[in-house]
Amino acid sequence: TFRFSQIEGTVNGVPSLHITCNFTTAMLQQPSLQKQLFSVCLLSHLAVQYPIQQTLQSCNEMLSWAIAQSGQMSIVWTLLSLESFVRIAKAFPPLVDPISRLLLNQKKMLSRHDNGNY
Question: Could you give the C-alpha distances from 11 to 43, 104, 116, in angstroms and in order?
Answer without folding.
Answer: 10, 30, 41
